[in-house]
Amino acid sequence: MPRQQWVAASLFLVVMLGIVMLTAELRESLRRARRLNEELVESERQAVERQAFLSGVLASSTDCIKGLDLDGKLTFMSEGGQHVMEISDFNEVVGCPWPDFWQDAGNAEAKAAIEAARRGEARSFIGKADTYRGTPKWWHVAVSPITGPDGRPDRILSVSRDITNLRASEEERDRFVRLAENSTDFIGMAGTDGSVFYVNDAARRLVGLEGADITRLTIADFFPPDQVETVMRKVLPAVDRDGHWVGELDFRHFRTGELIPVLYSVFPVTDATGTLIGYGTVTRDFRERRRTEDDMRLMNGELAHRLKNVLAVVQSVAAQTLRGIPEAETASQSLSARLVALGAATDVLTGRSWRSADLCELATRALSPHGRIGERILLCGPAVTLKPELTVAFALALHELATNAAKYGALSNETGHVTLAWSINGDGDDAKLAVCWREEGGPPVTPPQRKGFGSVLIERSLRSYFSGKAATDYRPEGLVFELEARLGDAAIVTGK
Amino acid sequence: MGQSTPIGSKTILIVEDEALVRFDLVDFFTHAEWRVFDAENADEAIAILDAHKDIRVVLTDVQMPGSMDGVKLAHYVRERFPPTVLFVVSGNAPIPAHELPARATFLPKPFDPHRLLRQIESIAQA
C-alpha cells in the first residue's frame, strides 16, 4: 500500500471516528436539550400552579391584603380585601395614598408604619377606618416591607383584619368592667374554694385593702370570727341551693378591725358553659343605716321614758289630789292602776317603734301583774300583730278584766284561773279575729248592779276601736267576755 | 328632806328626783303608817342611810342627777347595808337582773304603789 493510501486511510479513520464521536455528542446534547425543555415545562407548570395557589389564597382570604409602593400608594388589593373594604372597582382607588383611609390616631399610625417599612421594619396597630362605602370599622393592621432583589425594601405589604365585632364585644365587656370598678357598692368575686380573685375599688376602700394584694385572701377573711361560720355553713350553701342569699352581716376592717355593718348579697358566678366557678357579691355599706336605726331606737326609748315619767307624774298628782277624800279612795286606786296599765302598753309599743304590738306580748305585760301567766292566767292563740291605735285600749280592757277577776272573779281565790284565747277564722278580707276571756273556778258570779267605767272600757271602747262585737256574759260558773272583729280592722296582716 | 313620825321598824327611803312623784310616795307611805325618808339624789340618800341604820327598804329611781345613778346606789346599799330590801324604778327599758344587785326588784314606771306596798309587806313577812 502506498504511503499516501495509508495516510488517506488513516485520515478517513480519524474523520470517521470524529464523526462517530460528534454524532454521539450531538445525540447526548439533544437528549440534554430535551430534558432541559421538559424541566422547563415542568417548572413552568409548577410556577403556574403556585401562582394559582397564591392567587387563590389572596382571593379567598377575608383579610384585606394590599401592596403599596414606598410612598404608601396603593398598587394592589386582594379580591377578598376589595370585598371587605366594599370596593367594587380597584381602579378607583389604585394610586391613592393608603394612610388617607385612616381616621384620627389611625392616620398617624398608618404613616408611621409606612415610614418604618421603608426602613425595613414591620409594624402593627389597631385603628378605625371607614370602608369605601362609608361603613365604620375597626381594623388590626400589619405592615411589613417587601424586599427587592438588592436586599432593600422596594414595596410594602399591608394586611388588615376586620375586628369590628371583637371590638364591640370588648367594648361591651369594658363597660361592665367599668360598671363594677366605679360602683360605690362593694363588688367582689371568689372561687368555689373561697379564694378571692376580684374586688373593686369601693370594696378596697370599705375594708381597708387599698393597694393590698388580694390574691391570698378568702371570703372568710372579710368577716369577724364569730360570723365566719354563718357565712360558710349557711350563706354559701344557700347560694348553691337557692341561687342567692341576702342578709345583714358585718365585715371586718383589715387594718383597724372595726366591724362594718353591711347588707351582704351573694350569688353564683358561672362560666360560659354554666358551670359554677365561684361566688359574686354586691354588698352595701349599712353603717349609716345602722346608725340611723340606732338613733331611732334611742329616740324611741327616750320618748317612751319621758311619756312614762309624765304618766308617773299624772299618777302622783291625781293620788295627791284625791288623798284624804275617803269616798275617792277606791277611785284613786283604780286610776293609779289604770295608769300603770297604760304605761305597760306603752312599753310594748315602744318595742316595735309604735308601729304594731304583738297580741301575746301585750297580754303578758297587761296580765302578769295580776297572776302568774301559765298558771292562773293561760294565754293561747296564733301570732297576731295588733294595730298600734288599738293597743292601748286593748291593754286597758285586759287590765280591767284582770282587776275584776282579782276582786270578784276567778283570780279572787287560790284555785280559779282565766283563759285568754284568740283565733283567726276565715280567709282573706272575711277573716275574723275572735278573742275570748273565760274565767273558771272562781266564786259564783252575779251580774253587777251598775256598770262602772271598767265595764265601759271593756265593752264600749273595744267595740269602737275594733269596729266589732264585744259582749260580757256573767255566767254563774265564770265570767266570759267575747270580742269579734274583722282581722283587717284589728291587726296588721302580712302574707298568709 | 322630809321625815315623818317613826312607827315601828317600817322605815323606807325614797330616792326620786321628780318632786311631784316623790311627794306622792312620801304621802302614800306615811299614810300607810311607814316612817319615810326621802332624797333627791344618791349623795343625799347615802347621807340619810349613814345617819339612820334602821331603814329597811330603799326605793330608788334610776335616772337621777349627781355622781351616782339609782343602779349604782342600789349596789352601794346592798354592800353597805346587806339586809335592805331594794326596789329600782325606771321609766326606761327594764334593767336586766344581772345588772342589779342580788335581791333587788325592778319596777317599771309608773308603778302601782298599793301593789308595791303589798309586795313589801309580803317580803317583810317572809
Describe the structure.
Chain A starts with a helix and ends in a 6-residue tail after the last helix. The longest helix of chain A has 58 residues, at 3-60. Chain A has four domains: 1-59; 61-168, PAS domain (Beta-Lactamase); 183-285, 2-Layer Sandwich (Beta-Lactamase), CATH 3.30.450; 356-490, Heat Shock Protein 90, CATH 3.30.565.10. With 496 residues, chain A is an alpha+beta fold. In chain A, strands 2-1-5-4-3 form a five-stranded antiparallel β-sheet, with helices on both faces. In chain A, strands 7-6-10-9-8 form a five-stranded antiparallel β-sheet, sandwiched between helices. A five-stranded mixed β-sheet of chain A has the order 12-14-15-17-16. Chain A has helices spanning 3-60, 79-84, 104-118, 164-182, 201-207, 225-242, 287-322, 329-351, 359-367, 388-407, 453-466, 487-490, and strands spanning 64-68, 74-77, 123-130, 136-147, 153-162, 186-191, 196-199, 245-252, 259-270, 276-285, 357-358, 377-380, 385-386, 417-425, 432-440, 469-475, 478-486. In chain B, strands 2-1-3-4-5 form a five-stranded parallel β-sheet, with helices on both faces. Chain B has one domain: Rossmann fold, CATH 3.40.50. Chain B is globular. The relative contact order of chain B is 0.16.
